[in-house]
Task: inverse folding
């Protein structure tokens, strides 16, 4: 594209992305590239150079060269954003700028598609937002807004916004691509195409289908499914209208903590894999654990397929429109309805010990563990063989339906020596959360490559288990967690931004008022009773430990409201250098985790005295944007204070804390011809400022490293292209007690592409080239007596090849 001024480029980009036109160019504005125009969390498209906030952009080339196996792996390139990419293609933990991950998911970060949320809450238990989105050829780019301004442009997002922006067919073209895993099981086919249809119409459609075992050995095709997304746009004089639709039906394995041997001391631990169980290359899943007998939400026997894993079913349809109204006014409308459902089935390692020790706990002294299935079914286990007491997280996601509407008006006019922009809107959403927790407990070999289930026979030879099932409930968690809940969260949020720009100065103030209500009912932690689950006319010892769903449901009936605001400004020090400052206060309404833990009156469902349905984050940031010739450099200093309460499903523990964090982000890129050198780093000093556990005060929040970094040189030499990436982190603590350390690690990626003819590209990409075990979390706060820690690692080495034909 020809290099154009900021004003002209804003108009070109606005037409391509379907967003509003820009106002007059500011004095001192520099010329910029198309990828430097951002729309996420902005009142109107703006260049990154003039943005009064920190925004990262990942385009299609960035994603191809990084060879991510999940959205979380792609997001490791963003400074300030810690993406724990260890859960598979979903179930990721995302954290922004030291704001904590005290339970799971992305509590303070909202994931969007084309400016609307996938789910209104990013940390719904067993249903994180990244589970219900896939990147494919329909994706044009990912924009990540970091900092407090996000809280006034989206509900429940004081930490930031991750926005996946779709192609719209403004330029004709597409591609067909076939890929295969060279050292792991995956076959993938993808295609996309779009372009003008004439008379102002454009379209784009894209999707994929893939099937395979996935990046870890599971013994079966755990990743299988596909997606189709499409849009149709009618460009109007000074506006547009667009219809979009998406269909996703996909299964992906969820990776949960694996047993790892740890020796040495908590401060200087030595981590090593157990024999036959690689934490980065093996899955706990097994063909010998493919189906499970349980009770459904109505206490009826049901058989579930563990191979469903993270099952994502999404059907969505949406409308976007924008039009000039005259006299400087514009209107923009965005609407989407998404029918979302699925499953989350994955084995969680609750206990690890010798099979004999676990058998004694179940069948008393003299009990004998024997293989329940597999090639050695019926044979006793060798003395000293390690086994895992597993709780199967069998969760039915009945409905996560989401309907969102966002109506915006903007107005621009000259005021004094500058331009005044007014931007106001109304956001309305309705988020359904309906699910059943149907957990069971079983014994499993502590090994990879199709571990067998284990039965326990007592001293007299009688079975104490049912084909490896210890109890029809979460026996290793104290028989908790058989739950059913159906809650609907409705919210209405008016918002307003006013900004003035003149000469080299820009100032803005934005405010958002969120009004919400929660209605529904919950049932859970029911009694343990004998139940003939398999309907054979007898009650086995395992059936005698059946957790029943309570017949009486507790109501959920409360309202909440909170105000978020952000004030900031920028100053162009020169045509190449701009600075900005910002201070913000944003809120996050608590969702399903809030209704579990004694915050509501048992009879009315109303809030109890002292219950806080909203957590608040205060943030300050100051940054510099430098764009000088081939060099782009962004540096941001930040400070955050987070007041939080949360609930963690795996530990059944509630927390109430205050966190403080400060640090510096650096994001740089240098381009000369076909050579690009990109680098990013984040230094963070985070502390627990207050806690319901006094001993934790002053400690570093769990899993928070002091330094994360990424280096990514790439070369495009005509027919050849090469890319290298190095992403790393320093050590962190496994838990808030600050005892056991998670070791530092670095991950190397490699990409090579060859174009034998103009439209054909053959590429090979390696992710985690040196098969590093990078531990993102651990359940234990200190090394236990048996030296085995349950920890979750990033994926090991995966090498893929793809053939791509440009259309």
Result:
């Amino acid at each position: 594209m020809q290099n154009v001024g900021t004003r002209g480029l804003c108009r070109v980009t606005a037409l391509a992305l379907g967003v509003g036109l820009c106002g007059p160019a500011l004095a001192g504005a520099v010329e910029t590239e198309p990828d430097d125009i951002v729309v996420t969390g902005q009142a109107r498209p703006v260049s990154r150079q003039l943005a009064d906030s920190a925004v990262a952009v990942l385009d299609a080339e960035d994603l191809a060269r990084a060879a991510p196996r999940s959205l979380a792996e792609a997001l490791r390139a963003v400074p300030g954003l810690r993406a724990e990419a260890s859960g598979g293609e979903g179930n990721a933990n995302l954290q922004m700028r030291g704001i904590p991950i005290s339970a799971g998911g992305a509590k303070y970060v909202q994931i969007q598609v084309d400016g609307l949320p996938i789910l209104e809450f990013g940390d719904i238990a067993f249903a994180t937002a990244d589970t219900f989105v896939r990147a494919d050829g329909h994706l044009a780019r990912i924009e990540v807004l970091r900092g407090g301004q996000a809280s006034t442009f989206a509900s429940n997002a004081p930490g930031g916004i991750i926005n996946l922006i779709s192609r719209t067919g403004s330029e004709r073209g597409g591609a067909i691509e076939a890929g295969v895993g060279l050292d792991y099981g995956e076959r993938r086919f993808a295609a996309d195409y779009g372009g003008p249809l004439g008379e102002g119409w454009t379209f784009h459609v894209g999707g994929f289908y893939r099937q395979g075992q996935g990046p870890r050995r599971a013994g079966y095709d755990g990743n299988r499914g596909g997606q189709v997304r499409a849009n149709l746009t009618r460009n109007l004089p000074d506006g547009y209208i667009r219809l979009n639709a998406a269909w996703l039906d996909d299964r992906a394995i969820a990776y949960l903590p694996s047993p790892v041997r740890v020796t040495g001391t908590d401060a200087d631990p030595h981590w090593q894999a157990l024999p036959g169980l690689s934490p980065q290359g093996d899955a706990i899943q097994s063909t010998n654990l493919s189906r499970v007998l349980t009770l459904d939400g109505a206490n009826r026997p049901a058989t579930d397929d563990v191979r469903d894993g993270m099952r994502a079913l999404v059907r969505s349809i949406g409308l976007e429109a924008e039009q000039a109204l005259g006299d400087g006014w514009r209107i923009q409308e965005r609407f989407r309805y998404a029918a979302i459902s699925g499953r989350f089935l994955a084995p969680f390692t609750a206990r690890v010990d010798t099979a004999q020790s676990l058998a004694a706990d179940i069948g008393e002294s003299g009990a004998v563990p024997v293989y329940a299935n597999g090639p050695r079914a019926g044979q006793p286990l060798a003395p000293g063989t390690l086994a895992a007491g597993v709780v199967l997280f069998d969760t039915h996601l009945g409905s996560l339906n989401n309907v969102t509407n966002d109506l915006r008006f903007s107005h621009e006019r000259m005021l004094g020596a500058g331009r005044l922009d007014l931007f106001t809107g109304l956001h309305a959403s309705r988020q359904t959360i309906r699910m059943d927790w149907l957990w069971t407990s079983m014994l499993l070999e502590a090994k990879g490559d199709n571990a067998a289930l284990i039965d326990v026979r007592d001293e007299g030879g009688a079975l104490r288990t049912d084909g490896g099932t210890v109890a029809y409930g979460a026996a290793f968690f104290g028989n908790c967690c058989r739950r059913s809940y159906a809650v609907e969260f409705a919210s209405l949020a008016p918002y307003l931004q006013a900004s003035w720009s003149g000469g080299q100065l820009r100032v803005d103030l934005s405010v958002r008022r969120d009004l919400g209500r929660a209605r529904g009912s919950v049932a859970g932690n029911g009694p343990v009773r004998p139940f003939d689950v398999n309907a054979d006319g007898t009650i086995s010892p395992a059936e005698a430990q059946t957790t029943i769903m309570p017949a009486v449901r507790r109501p959920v009936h409360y309202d909440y409201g909170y105000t978020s605001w952000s004030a900031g400004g920028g100053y162009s020090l020169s045509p190449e250098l701009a600075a900005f400052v910002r201070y913000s206060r944003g809120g996050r309404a608590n969702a399903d985790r809030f209704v579990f833990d004694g915050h509501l009156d048992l009879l009315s469902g109303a809030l109890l005295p002292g219950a806080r349905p909203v957590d608040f984050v205060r943030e300050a940031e100051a940054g510099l944007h430098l764009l000088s010739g081939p060099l782009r450099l962004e540096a941001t200093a930040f400070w955050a204070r987070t007041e939080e309460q949360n609930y963690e499903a795996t530990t059944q523990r509630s927390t109430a804390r205050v966190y403080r964090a400060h640090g510096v982000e650096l994001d740089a890129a240098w381009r000369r011809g076909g050579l690009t050198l990109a680098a990013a780093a984040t230094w963070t000093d985070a502390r627990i400022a207050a806690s319901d556990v006094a001993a934790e005060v002053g400690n570093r929040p769990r899993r928070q490293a002091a330094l994360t970094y990424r280096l990514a040189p790439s070369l495009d030499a005509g027919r050849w292209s090469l890319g290298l990436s190095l992403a790393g982190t320093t050590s962190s603590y496994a838990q808030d007690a600050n005892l056991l350390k998670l070791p530092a690690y670095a991950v190397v990626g490699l990409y090579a592409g060859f174009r034998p003819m103009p439209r054909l590209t053959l590429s090979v990409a390696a992710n985690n080239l040196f098969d590093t075990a990078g531990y993102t979390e651990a359940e234990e706060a200190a090394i236990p007596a048996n030296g085995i820690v349950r920890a979750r690692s990033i994926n090991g080495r995966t090498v893929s090849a793809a053939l791509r034909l440009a259309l």
User: Anything to note?
Assistant: The helical segments are 6-17, 60-66, 71-75, 150-153, 355-363.
